[in-house]
Amino acid sequence: MLRIEDLTVAYGDIVALHGVSLEVAAGETVALIGANGAGKTTLLQTVSGLNKLRSGRMEFGGASLAPLSSADRVRAGIAQAPEGRRIFPGLSVEENLVVATSSWRRLGKSYADDLAQVFDLFPRLKERRRQLGWSLSGGEQQMLAIGRALMSRPKLLLLDEPSLGLAPRLAEEVYDRVGRIRETGLTILVVEQNTVLALAVANRGYVLETGRVVLAGSADELRRSERVREAYLGR
Amino acid sequence: MADLIQLLTNGLALGSVYALAAIGFVIVYSATGVVNFAAGQFVMLGTFAGVAMLLNAGLPMPVGYAAALIAMALFGALFYLVVYLPLRTSPVVTVIIGTVAIGITLQNAALLTFGSWPFRLPSPFEGMMIEVAGAVVSVHALAVVATTAVMIFLLWLLLHRTAIGIAMRAVAQDVKAARLMGLRVQWLLAFSWILGAVLAGVAGLMLGPMWFADVNMGDPIALKAFAATVIGGFGSLPGAIAGGLFVGLAEVLGASYISSAYKDLIAFGIMILFLLVRPQGIFGEPIQDRG
Ligand SMILES: Nc1ncnc2c1ncn2[C@@H]1O[C@H](COP(=O)(O)OP(=O)(O)OP(=O)(O)O)[C@@H](O)[C@H]1O
Ligand SMILES: [Mg+2]
Protein backbone atom coordinates (compact mmCIF):
# COMPACT_ATOMS: atom_id res chain seq x y z
CA MET A 1 0.00 0.00 0.00
CA LEU A 2 2.80 2.39 0.98
CA ARG A 3 6.18 1.97 -0.64
CA ILE A 4 9.14 4.22 0.19
CA GLU A 5 12.33 3.86 -1.82
CA ASP A 6 15.69 5.37 -1.07
CA LEU A 7 14.24 8.38 0.69
CA THR A 8 16.63 11.19 1.66
CA VAL A 9 15.33 14.20 3.57
CA ALA A 10 17.36 17.09 4.95
CA TYR A 11 16.76 20.21 7.01
CA GLY A 12 19.29 22.58 5.48
CA ASP A 13 22.62 20.85 6.10
CA ILE A 14 21.26 18.33 8.59
CA VAL A 15 20.41 15.14 6.75
CA ALA A 16 17.66 13.48 8.78
CA LEU A 17 17.01 10.45 6.53
CA HIS A 18 19.69 8.76 4.42
CA GLY A 19 18.20 6.57 1.72
CA VAL A 20 15.45 4.92 3.73
CA SER A 21 13.35 2.23 2.08
CA LEU A 22 10.33 0.61 3.64
CA GLU A 23 7.03 -0.89 2.71
CA VAL A 24 3.65 -1.32 4.34
CA ALA A 25 1.28 -3.84 2.77
CA ALA A 26 -2.51 -3.53 2.94
CA GLY A 27 -3.92 -4.77 6.24
CA GLU A 28 -0.56 -4.83 8.00
CA THR A 29 0.50 -3.04 11.14
CA VAL A 30 4.13 -1.98 10.89
CA ALA A 31 6.22 -0.51 13.68
CA LEU A 32 9.07 1.91 13.09
CA ILE A 33 11.25 2.04 16.16
CA GLY A 34 14.23 4.18 16.96
CA ALA A 35 15.78 6.45 19.58
CA ASN A 36 15.44 10.23 19.90
CA GLY A 37 16.43 12.03 16.74
CA ALA A 38 16.52 8.87 14.60
CA GLY A 39 14.29 10.49 11.99
CA LYS A 40 10.96 8.80 12.71
CA THR A 41 8.88 11.98 12.80
CA THR A 42 10.67 13.27 9.72
CA LEU A 43 9.62 10.13 7.85
CA LEU A 44 5.94 10.40 8.79
CA GLN A 45 5.86 14.12 8.02
CA THR A 46 7.39 13.46 4.63
CA VAL A 47 4.76 10.84 3.87
CA SER A 48 2.08 13.39 4.84
CA GLY A 49 3.63 16.01 2.60
CA LEU A 50 4.97 18.43 5.22
CA ASN A 51 8.64 17.94 4.28
CA LYS A 52 10.32 18.14 0.91
CA LEU A 53 12.36 15.15 -0.09
CA ARG A 54 15.85 15.56 -1.45
CA SER A 55 15.69 12.29 -3.35
CA GLY A 56 13.78 9.03 -3.43
CA ARG A 57 10.28 7.88 -4.28
CA MET A 58 7.08 7.43 -2.34
CA GLU A 59 4.11 5.49 -3.69
CA PHE A 60 0.68 5.03 -2.18
CA GLY A 61 -1.68 2.48 -3.68
CA GLY A 62 0.61 2.20 -6.70
CA ALA A 63 0.63 5.93 -7.53
CA SER A 64 3.38 8.40 -6.80
CA LEU A 65 2.74 10.74 -3.86
CA ALA A 66 4.95 13.46 -5.33
CA PRO A 67 2.24 15.51 -7.06
CA LEU A 68 -0.14 15.45 -4.08
CA SER A 69 -0.39 18.31 -1.56
CA SER A 70 -0.79 17.38 2.10
CA ALA A 71 -4.54 18.00 1.82
CA ASP A 72 -4.71 15.72 -1.25
CA ARG A 73 -2.85 12.99 0.60
CA VAL A 74 -5.50 13.02 3.32
CA ARG A 75 -8.15 12.68 0.62
CA ALA A 76 -6.17 9.85 -0.95
CA GLY A 77 -6.44 8.04 2.40
CA ILE A 78 -3.38 8.88 4.50
CA ALA A 79 -4.24 10.21 7.97
CA GLN A 80 -1.88 11.04 10.79
CA ALA A 81 -2.05 11.42 14.54
CA PRO A 82 1.05 13.60 14.89
CA GLU A 83 3.75 13.68 17.54
CA GLY A 84 2.61 15.65 20.57
CA ARG A 85 -1.07 15.13 19.54
CA ARG A 86 -1.48 18.70 18.22
CA ILE A 87 -5.10 18.92 19.26
CA PHE A 88 -6.70 22.24 18.29
CA PRO A 89 -6.72 23.78 21.79
CA GLY A 90 -9.57 26.23 21.29
CA LEU A 91 -11.89 23.81 19.51
CA SER A 92 -14.22 21.52 21.41
CA VAL A 93 -13.70 17.76 21.25
CA GLU A 94 -16.50 17.47 18.74
CA GLU A 95 -15.20 20.36 16.62
CA ASN A 96 -11.74 18.79 16.63
CA LEU A 97 -13.29 15.66 15.16
CA VAL A 98 -15.66 17.35 12.74
CA VAL A 99 -12.99 19.62 11.29
CA ALA A 100 -11.06 16.54 10.17
CA THR A 101 -13.85 15.06 8.03
CA SER A 102 -13.79 15.84 4.34
CA SER A 103 -15.25 19.23 3.45
CA TRP A 104 -18.33 17.97 1.64
CA ARG A 105 -19.22 15.75 4.56
CA ARG A 106 -18.75 18.73 6.89
CA LEU A 107 -20.99 20.89 4.74
CA GLY A 108 -23.71 18.27 4.45
CA LYS A 109 -23.30 17.39 8.14
CA SER A 110 -23.21 13.72 7.12
CA TYR A 111 -20.45 12.76 9.52
CA ALA A 112 -22.73 11.33 12.21
CA ASP A 113 -21.67 7.73 11.53
CA ASP A 114 -17.98 8.56 11.68
CA LEU A 115 -18.50 10.48 14.91
CA ALA A 116 -20.45 7.58 16.41
CA GLN A 117 -17.67 5.15 15.51
CA VAL A 118 -15.02 7.30 17.17
CA PHE A 119 -17.18 7.73 20.28
CA ASP A 120 -17.73 3.98 20.32
CA LEU A 121 -13.99 3.40 20.34
CA PHE A 122 -13.29 6.19 22.85
CA PRO A 123 -16.37 6.60 25.07
CA ARG A 124 -14.54 9.13 27.20
CA LEU A 125 -14.45 11.54 24.27
CA LYS A 126 -18.21 11.35 24.04
CA GLU A 127 -18.59 12.43 27.67
CA ARG A 128 -16.28 15.35 26.97
CA ARG A 129 -17.57 16.30 23.55
CA ARG A 130 -18.29 19.93 24.50
CA GLN A 131 -15.03 20.44 26.41
CA LEU A 132 -12.23 22.45 24.77
CA GLY A 133 -9.19 20.60 23.47
CA TRP A 134 -6.67 22.15 25.83
CA SER A 135 -8.60 21.05 28.90
CA LEU A 136 -8.22 17.32 28.17
CA SER A 137 -5.68 15.12 29.95
CA GLY A 138 -2.73 13.76 27.98
CA GLY A 139 -4.36 10.38 27.51
CA GLU A 140 -7.63 11.92 26.35
CA GLN A 141 -5.75 14.16 23.95
CA GLN A 142 -4.02 11.16 22.45
CA MET A 143 -7.35 9.41 22.01
CA LEU A 144 -8.74 12.53 20.40
CA ALA A 145 -5.72 12.73 18.08
CA ILE A 146 -6.30 9.15 16.95
CA GLY A 147 -10.05 9.63 16.66
CA ARG A 148 -9.52 12.81 14.67
CA ALA A 149 -7.26 10.95 12.24
CA LEU A 150 -9.97 8.30 11.77
CA MET A 151 -12.57 10.93 10.82
CA SER A 152 -11.17 11.22 7.28
CA ARG A 153 -11.93 7.48 6.72
CA PRO A 154 -8.28 6.69 6.00
CA LYS A 155 -6.80 3.65 4.31
CA LEU A 156 -3.49 4.14 6.08
CA LEU A 157 -3.16 5.44 9.63
CA LEU A 158 0.14 7.00 10.70
CA LEU A 159 0.71 7.18 14.46
CA ASP A 160 3.65 9.16 15.82
CA GLU A 161 4.59 8.02 19.33
CA PRO A 162 1.09 7.58 20.73
CA SER A 163 2.56 6.54 24.09
CA LEU A 164 4.65 9.70 24.46
CA GLY A 165 4.37 11.23 27.92
CA LEU A 166 1.66 8.85 29.12
CA ALA A 167 1.71 6.82 32.33
CA PRO A 168 2.25 3.11 31.55
CA ARG A 169 -1.36 2.19 32.25
CA LEU A 170 -2.65 4.88 29.90
CA ALA A 171 -0.11 3.97 27.22
CA GLU A 172 -1.41 0.39 27.40
CA GLU A 173 -4.97 1.62 27.11
CA VAL A 174 -4.08 3.63 24.00
CA TYR A 175 -2.38 0.57 22.47
CA ASP A 176 -5.38 -1.56 23.33
CA ARG A 177 -7.42 0.80 21.11
CA VAL A 178 -4.76 0.68 18.39
CA GLY A 179 -5.19 -3.09 18.50
CA ARG A 180 -8.94 -2.70 18.06
CA ILE A 181 -8.45 -0.36 15.10
CA ARG A 182 -6.11 -2.95 13.61
CA GLU A 183 -8.84 -5.59 13.97
CA THR A 184 -11.06 -3.53 11.65
CA GLY A 185 -8.51 -4.19 8.92
CA LEU A 186 -7.05 -0.69 8.74
CA THR A 187 -3.39 -0.50 7.69
CA ILE A 188 -1.23 1.15 10.35
CA LEU A 189 2.30 2.52 10.47
CA VAL A 190 3.22 3.29 14.06
CA VAL A 191 6.37 5.11 15.16
CA GLU A 192 7.57 4.44 18.69
CA GLN A 193 10.34 4.59 21.22
CA ASN A 194 8.33 2.26 23.42
CA THR A 195 9.45 -0.87 21.63
CA VAL A 196 7.53 -3.33 23.79
CA LEU A 197 4.16 -1.78 23.10
CA ALA A 198 4.80 -1.17 19.42
CA LEU A 199 6.08 -4.67 18.69
CA ALA A 200 3.18 -6.20 20.59
CA VAL A 201 0.67 -4.69 18.20
CA ALA A 202 2.73 -4.90 14.99
CA ASN A 203 3.18 -7.69 12.43
CA ARG A 204 6.51 -6.36 11.26
CA GLY A 205 8.97 -3.66 12.17
CA TYR A 206 11.91 -1.57 11.10
CA VAL A 207 14.64 -0.16 13.30
CA LEU A 208 15.82 3.34 12.40
CA GLU A 209 19.16 4.69 13.65
CA THR A 210 20.41 8.16 12.76
CA GLY A 211 18.40 8.26 9.57
CA ARG A 212 19.12 4.73 8.32
CA VAL A 213 17.15 1.50 8.50
CA VAL A 214 19.53 -0.85 10.31
CA LEU A 215 17.21 -3.78 10.88
CA ALA A 216 13.93 -5.11 9.56
CA GLY A 217 11.90 -8.19 10.28
CA SER A 218 8.80 -9.68 11.80
CA ALA A 219 7.81 -8.44 15.25
CA ASP A 220 9.00 -11.74 16.74
CA GLU A 221 12.36 -11.58 15.02
CA LEU A 222 12.91 -8.04 16.22
CA ARG A 223 11.94 -8.91 19.79
CA ARG A 224 14.49 -11.73 19.76
CA SER A 225 17.28 -9.80 18.03
CA GLU A 226 20.33 -8.93 20.14
CA ARG A 227 20.51 -5.44 18.77
CA VAL A 228 16.93 -4.57 19.71
CA ARG A 229 17.19 -6.24 23.11
CA GLU A 230 20.32 -4.30 24.00
CA ALA A 231 19.40 -0.93 22.61
CA TYR A 232 15.66 -0.75 23.11
CA LEU A 233 14.47 -3.39 25.53
CA GLY A 234 17.14 -2.80 28.14
CA ARG A 235 18.32 -6.37 28.61
CA MET B 1 -27.84 64.21 31.14
CA ALA B 2 -29.09 64.81 27.61
CA ASP B 3 -25.54 65.76 26.65
CA LEU B 4 -24.20 62.60 28.17
CA ILE B 5 -26.62 60.38 26.25
CA GLN B 6 -25.66 62.11 23.04
CA LEU B 7 -21.97 61.70 23.77
CA LEU B 8 -22.36 58.06 24.74
CA THR B 9 -24.22 57.34 21.50
CA ASN B 10 -21.58 59.05 19.39
CA GLY B 11 -18.81 57.36 21.36
CA LEU B 12 -20.37 53.93 20.90
CA ALA B 13 -20.86 54.57 17.18
CA LEU B 14 -17.25 55.62 16.70
CA GLY B 15 -16.17 52.74 18.94
CA SER B 16 -18.19 50.32 16.78
CA VAL B 17 -16.25 51.44 13.72
CA TYR B 18 -12.95 50.96 15.57
CA ALA B 19 -14.17 47.59 16.80
CA LEU B 20 -14.95 46.38 13.26
CA ALA B 21 -11.58 47.62 12.03
CA ALA B 22 -9.91 45.86 14.95
CA ILE B 23 -11.85 42.63 14.30
CA GLY B 24 -10.71 42.61 10.67
CA PHE B 25 -7.17 43.14 11.86
CA VAL B 26 -7.42 40.34 14.47
CA ILE B 27 -8.93 37.83 12.01
CA VAL B 28 -6.02 38.30 9.63
CA TYR B 29 -3.51 38.27 12.47
CA SER B 30 -4.75 35.11 14.11
CA ALA B 31 -5.05 33.23 10.82
CA THR B 32 -1.80 34.31 9.18
CA GLY B 33 0.35 35.76 11.97
CA VAL B 34 0.65 38.96 9.94
CA VAL B 35 0.31 42.28 11.78
CA ASN B 36 -1.37 44.18 8.96
CA PHE B 37 -0.08 47.74 9.10
CA ALA B 38 -2.27 48.55 6.12
CA ALA B 39 -5.42 47.84 8.19
CA GLY B 40 -6.21 51.55 8.52
CA GLN B 41 -5.87 52.00 4.77
CA PHE B 42 -8.30 49.11 4.31
CA VAL B 43 -10.91 51.18 6.17
CA MET B 44 -10.02 54.29 4.14
CA LEU B 45 -10.45 52.20 1.02
CA GLY B 46 -13.87 51.10 2.28
CA THR B 47 -14.93 54.72 2.66
CA PHE B 48 -13.65 55.57 -0.81
CA ALA B 49 -15.25 52.49 -2.32
CA GLY B 50 -18.45 54.09 -1.00
CA VAL B 51 -17.46 57.45 -2.51
CA ALA B 52 -16.77 55.77 -5.87
CA MET B 53 -20.02 53.79 -5.95
CA LEU B 54 -22.44 56.28 -4.39
CA LEU B 55 -21.02 59.67 -5.47
CA ASN B 56 -18.97 58.99 -8.60
CA ALA B 57 -21.00 56.17 -10.11
CA GLY B 58 -24.22 57.51 -8.60
CA LEU B 59 -25.56 54.08 -7.67
CA PRO B 60 -28.62 53.96 -5.39
CA MET B 61 -27.93 53.20 -1.70
CA PRO B 62 -28.36 49.43 -1.34
CA VAL B 63 -26.74 48.66 -4.69
CA GLY B 64 -23.90 51.07 -4.05
CA TYR B 65 -23.18 49.54 -0.63
CA ALA B 66 -23.22 46.02 -2.07
CA ALA B 67 -20.92 47.08 -4.92
CA ALA B 68 -18.51 48.74 -2.48
CA LEU B 69 -18.36 45.62 -0.31
CA ILE B 70 -17.85 43.36 -3.34
CA ALA B 71 -15.02 45.66 -4.40
CA MET B 72 -13.54 45.28 -0.90
CA ALA B 73 -13.81 41.47 -1.09
CA LEU B 74 -11.98 41.53 -4.42
CA PHE B 75 -9.40 43.83 -2.88
CA GLY B 76 -8.89 41.34 -0.01
CA ALA B 77 -8.39 38.52 -2.51
CA LEU B 78 -5.98 40.67 -4.51
CA PHE B 79 -4.03 41.58 -1.38
CA TYR B 80 -3.74 37.87 -0.54
CA LEU B 81 -2.53 37.04 -4.07
CA VAL B 82 -0.16 39.96 -4.59
CA VAL B 83 1.22 40.60 -1.11
CA TYR B 84 0.68 37.62 1.16
CA LEU B 85 1.11 34.66 -1.20
CA PRO B 86 4.46 35.68 -2.75
CA LEU B 87 5.86 36.49 0.70
CA ARG B 88 4.34 33.64 2.69
CA THR B 89 7.55 31.62 2.89
CA SER B 90 9.63 34.64 3.93
CA PRO B 91 9.91 35.56 7.60
CA VAL B 92 6.71 37.08 8.91
CA VAL B 93 8.57 40.37 9.46
CA THR B 94 9.01 40.69 5.70
CA VAL B 95 5.28 40.34 5.17
CA ILE B 96 4.65 42.95 7.86
CA ILE B 97 7.04 45.38 6.16
CA GLY B 98 5.21 44.54 2.93
CA THR B 99 1.93 45.65 4.53
CA VAL B 100 3.55 48.97 5.54
CA ALA B 101 4.72 49.56 1.97
CA ILE B 102 1.34 48.63 0.53
CA GLY B 103 -0.38 50.90 3.05
CA ILE B 104 1.65 53.88 1.83
CA THR B 105 1.02 52.89 -1.78
CA LEU B 106 -2.73 52.68 -1.17
CA GLN B 107 -2.76 56.09 0.45
CA ASN B 108 -0.94 57.64 -2.50
CA ALA B 109 -3.09 55.82 -5.01
CA ALA B 110 -6.18 57.22 -3.28
CA LEU B 111 -4.66 60.69 -3.34
CA LEU B 112 -4.00 60.44 -7.09
CA THR B 113 -7.47 59.07 -7.79
CA PHE B 114 -9.62 61.17 -5.49
CA GLY B 115 -7.43 64.20 -4.76
CA SER B 116 -6.80 65.76 -1.37
CA TRP B 117 -10.18 67.48 -1.17
CA PRO B 118 -12.38 65.63 1.33
CA PHE B 119 -15.70 64.13 0.27
CA ARG B 120 -18.91 63.90 2.20
CA LEU B 121 -20.22 60.35 2.01
CA PRO B 122 -23.99 60.38 2.55
CA SER B 123 -25.76 58.23 5.09
CA PRO B 124 -29.07 56.45 4.40
CA PHE B 125 -30.26 58.35 7.48
CA GLU B 126 -28.86 61.72 6.37
CA GLY B 127 -29.89 64.43 8.80
CA MET B 128 -32.31 62.22 10.74
CA MET B 129 -32.48 62.69 14.48
CA ILE B 130 -34.43 60.85 17.12
CA GLU B 131 -35.23 61.60 20.74
CA VAL B 132 -33.92 59.12 23.30
CA ALA B 133 -34.65 59.80 26.98
CA GLY B 134 -34.80 63.53 26.36
CA ALA B 135 -31.66 63.64 24.24
CA VAL B 136 -31.54 64.18 20.50
CA VAL B 137 -29.25 61.63 18.87
CA SER B 138 -28.37 60.90 15.28
CA VAL B 139 -30.13 57.93 13.68
CA HIS B 140 -26.94 57.18 11.75
CA ALA B 141 -25.03 56.70 15.02
CA LEU B 142 -27.69 54.30 16.31
CA ALA B 143 -27.69 52.44 12.99
CA VAL B 144 -23.90 52.08 13.17
CA VAL B 145 -24.13 50.49 16.61
CA ALA B 146 -26.95 48.18 15.49
CA THR B 147 -25.16 47.18 12.29
CA THR B 148 -22.01 46.40 14.22
CA ALA B 149 -23.95 44.25 16.68
CA VAL B 150 -25.48 42.31 13.78
CA MET B 151 -22.08 41.90 12.09
CA ILE B 152 -20.57 40.56 15.30
CA PHE B 153 -23.42 38.08 15.67
CA LEU B 154 -23.03 36.91 12.05
CA LEU B 155 -19.29 36.58 12.55
CA TRP B 156 -19.86 34.48 15.65
CA LEU B 157 -22.23 32.22 13.69
CA LEU B 158 -19.67 31.92 10.92
CA LEU B 159 -16.81 30.97 13.26
CA HIS B 160 -18.75 28.61 15.49
CA ARG B 161 -21.57 27.18 13.44
CA THR B 162 -20.25 26.71 9.92
CA ALA B 163 -17.77 24.24 8.47
CA ILE B 164 -15.59 26.96 6.99
CA GLY B 165 -15.53 28.95 10.23
CA ILE B 166 -14.50 26.00 12.39
CA ALA B 167 -11.79 25.21 9.83
CA MET B 168 -10.60 28.85 9.99
CA ARG B 169 -10.27 28.61 13.75
CA ALA B 170 -8.35 25.34 13.39
CA VAL B 171 -5.91 26.96 10.94
CA ALA B 172 -5.46 29.91 13.29
CA GLN B 173 -4.65 27.57 16.17
CA ASP B 174 -2.26 25.13 14.46
CA VAL B 175 -1.45 25.40 10.77
CA LYS B 176 0.60 22.22 10.67
CA ALA B 177 -2.09 20.11 12.30
CA ALA B 178 -4.65 21.72 9.98
CA ARG B 179 -2.60 20.55 6.98
CA LEU B 180 -2.40 17.05 8.43
CA MET B 181 -6.20 17.01 8.76
CA GLY B 182 -6.53 17.74 5.05
CA LEU B 183 -7.75 21.32 5.39
CA ARG B 184 -7.13 23.52 2.34
CA VAL B 185 -5.05 25.97 4.33
CA GLN B 186 -4.32 28.40 1.50
CA TRP B 187 -8.00 28.81 0.65
CA LEU B 188 -8.84 29.41 4.29
CA LEU B 189 -6.09 32.02 4.59
CA ALA B 190 -7.36 33.74 1.44
CA PHE B 191 -10.82 33.76 2.98
CA SER B 192 -9.41 35.38 6.15
CA TRP B 193 -7.95 38.24 4.08
CA ILE B 194 -11.25 38.64 2.23
CA LEU B 195 -13.21 38.67 5.47
CA GLY B 196 -10.80 41.18 7.00
CA ALA B 197 -11.17 43.47 3.98
CA VAL B 198 -14.99 43.24 3.97
CA LEU B 199 -15.18 44.07 7.68
CA ALA B 200 -12.89 47.06 7.08
CA GLY B 201 -15.19 48.00 4.20
CA VAL B 202 -18.25 47.99 6.44
CA ALA B 203 -16.33 50.10 8.96
CA GLY B 204 -15.34 52.55 6.22
CA LEU B 205 -18.86 52.89 4.83
CA MET B 206 -20.23 53.63 8.30
CA LEU B 207 -17.41 56.01 9.17
CA GLY B 208 -17.70 58.04 5.95
CA PRO B 209 -20.78 60.02 7.03
CA MET B 210 -19.33 60.59 10.53
CA TRP B 211 -16.00 62.00 9.40
CA PHE B 212 -15.14 63.51 6.08
CA ALA B 213 -13.85 61.02 3.55
CA ASP B 214 -10.24 62.08 3.45
CA VAL B 215 -7.41 60.07 1.89
CA ASN B 216 -5.36 60.54 5.07
CA MET B 217 -8.00 59.04 7.36
CA GLY B 218 -6.31 55.61 7.39
CA ASP B 219 -3.51 56.43 9.81
CA PRO B 220 -5.61 57.62 12.77
CA ILE B 221 -7.92 54.62 12.29
CA ALA B 222 -4.99 52.20 12.23
CA LEU B 223 -3.70 53.70 15.48
CA LYS B 224 -7.11 53.47 17.16
CA ALA B 225 -7.71 49.91 15.97
CA PHE B 226 -4.26 48.97 17.18
CA ALA B 227 -4.88 50.61 20.55
CA ALA B 228 -8.19 48.73 20.71
CA THR B 229 -6.52 45.34 20.18
CA VAL B 230 -3.83 46.08 22.75
CA ILE B 231 -6.37 47.22 25.35
CA GLY B 232 -8.75 44.34 24.62
CA GLY B 233 -6.06 41.69 24.37
CA PHE B 234 -3.92 41.18 21.29
CA GLY B 235 -5.44 38.58 19.00
CA SER B 236 -8.70 38.24 20.94
CA LEU B 237 -11.99 38.92 19.13
CA PRO B 238 -14.01 39.84 22.25
CA GLY B 239 -11.02 42.01 23.15
CA ALA B 240 -11.18 43.81 19.79
CA ILE B 241 -14.86 44.59 20.43
CA ALA B 242 -14.37 45.78 24.00
CA GLY B 243 -11.20 47.68 23.11
CA GLY B 244 -12.81 49.37 20.10
CA LEU B 245 -15.82 50.56 22.09
CA PHE B 246 -13.55 51.71 24.86
CA VAL B 247 -11.32 53.76 22.57
CA GLY B 248 -14.33 55.31 20.82
CA LEU B 249 -15.94 56.30 24.12
CA ALA B 250 -12.66 57.61 25.53
CA GLU B 251 -12.16 59.73 22.43
CA VAL B 252 -15.62 61.30 22.40
CA LEU B 253 -15.96 61.78 26.16
CA GLY B 254 -12.36 63.00 26.44
CA ALA B 255 -12.86 65.55 23.69
CA SER B 256 -15.94 66.90 25.41
CA TYR B 257 -14.99 66.85 29.08
CA ILE B 258 -11.24 67.31 28.96
CA SER B 259 -10.07 68.86 25.74
CA SER B 260 -10.48 68.00 22.11
CA ALA B 261 -6.75 68.58 21.69
CA TYR B 262 -6.04 65.67 24.05
CA LYS B 263 -8.70 63.24 22.83
CA ASP B 264 -6.20 60.94 21.09
CA LEU B 265 -3.78 61.13 23.96
CA ILE B 266 -6.33 59.62 26.35
CA ALA B 267 -6.77 56.43 24.33
CA PHE B 268 -3.04 56.06 23.78
CA GLY B 269 -2.26 56.86 27.40
CA ILE B 270 -4.56 54.04 28.45
CA MET B 271 -3.03 51.75 25.84
CA ILE B 272 0.46 52.43 27.18
CA LEU B 273 -0.81 51.87 30.71
CA PHE B 274 -2.12 48.48 29.58
CA LEU B 275 1.18 47.61 27.91
CA LEU B 276 2.96 48.35 31.18
CA VAL B 277 0.54 46.86 33.68
CA ARG B 278 -1.47 44.25 31.83
CA PRO B 279 0.17 43.53 28.47
CA GLN B 280 -2.27 40.71 27.73
CA GLY B 281 -5.17 43.21 27.76
CA ILE B 282 -8.67 42.89 29.23
CA PHE B 283 -9.36 39.48 27.75
CA GLY B 284 -5.97 38.31 28.93
CA GLU B 285 -5.22 35.25 26.92
CA PRO B 286 -1.61 34.91 28.01
CA ILE B 287 0.48 35.32 24.88
CA GLN B 288 0.77 31.91 23.27
CA ASP B 289 2.90 30.52 20.49
CA ARG B 290 1.34 29.79 17.18
CA GLY B 291 1.95 26.13 16.41
N1 LIG C 1 12.55 21.42 11.72
C1 LIG C 1 13.80 20.91 11.85
N2 LIG C 1 14.87 21.67 11.54
C2 LIG C 1 16.12 21.17 11.65
N3 LIG C 1 16.42 19.93 12.06
C3 LIG C 1 15.39 19.12 12.38
C4 LIG C 1 14.04 19.57 12.30
N4 LIG C 1 13.22 18.56 12.69
C5 LIG C 1 14.06 17.53 12.99
N5 LIG C 1 15.35 17.86 12.81
C6 LIG C 1 16.51 16.99 13.01
O1 LIG C 1 16.32 15.83 12.23
C7 LIG C 1 16.72 14.68 12.95
C8 LIG C 1 15.54 13.70 13.03
O2 LIG C 1 14.50 14.27 13.82
P1 LIG C 1 13.09 13.59 14.04
O3 LIG C 1 12.24 14.54 14.75
O4 LIG C 1 12.62 13.06 12.76
O5 LIG C 1 13.49 12.39 14.99
P2 LIG C 1 12.54 11.39 15.81
O6 LIG C 1 13.04 10.03 15.51
O7 LIG C 1 11.14 11.65 15.55
O8 LIG C 1 12.93 11.74 17.30
P3 LIG C 1 11.99 11.72 18.63
O9 LIG C 1 11.93 10.31 19.06
O10 LIG C 1 12.75 12.56 19.59
O11 LIG C 1 10.67 12.28 18.25
C9 LIG C 1 17.21 15.15 14.29
O12 LIG C 1 18.61 15.24 14.22
C10 LIG C 1 16.59 16.52 14.44
O13 LIG C 1 17.42 17.35 15.21
MG1 LIG D 1 9.59 12.19 16.70
TrEMBL record, chain A:
UniProt-listed InterPro entries: AAA+_ATPase, ABC_transporter-like_ATP-bd, ABC_transporter-like_CS, BCAA_Transport_ATP-bd_LivF, P-loop_NTPase
Keyword field: Amino-acid transport, ATP-binding, Nucleotide-binding, Transport
Record-level GO BP terms: L-amino acid transport
Keyword Transport: yes
UniProt domain ABC transporter: residue ranges: 2-235
GO molecular function: ATP binding; ATP hydrolysis activity; branched-chain amino acid transmembrane transporter activity
Pfam families: ABC_tran (PF00005)
Domain of life where this protein originates: Bacteria
Family: Belongs to the ABC transporter superfamily.
Database matches in PANTHER family: HIGH-AFFINITY BRANCHED-CHAIN AMINO ACID TRANSPORT ATP-BINDING PROTEIN LIVF (PTHR43820)
Entry protein name: Amino acid/amide ABC transporter ATP-binding protein 2 (HAAT family)
Annotated source species: Enterovirga rhinocerotis
UniProtKB/TrEMBL annotation, chain B:
Compartments in which it is found: Cell membrane
InterPro entries: ABC_transp_permease, BCAA_transport_permease
Signal peptide region: none
Gene Ontology terms, MF aspect: transmembrane transporter activity
GO cellular component, one term: plasma membrane
Transmembrane residue ranges: 12-35, 42-59, 65-85, 92-117, 137-159, 187-213, 225-253, 265-283
Principal place of residence: membrane
Sorted UniProt keywords: Amino-acid transport, Cell membrane, Membrane, Transmembrane, Transmembrane helix, Transport
Membrane topology label: Multi-pass membrane protein
An example Gene Ontology biological process: amino acid transport
Record-stated family: Belongs to the binding-protein-dependent transport system permease family. LivHM subfamily.
Annotated protein name in UniProt: Amino acid/amide ABC transporter membrane protein 1 (HAAT family)
Species the sequence originates in: Enterovirga rhinocerotis
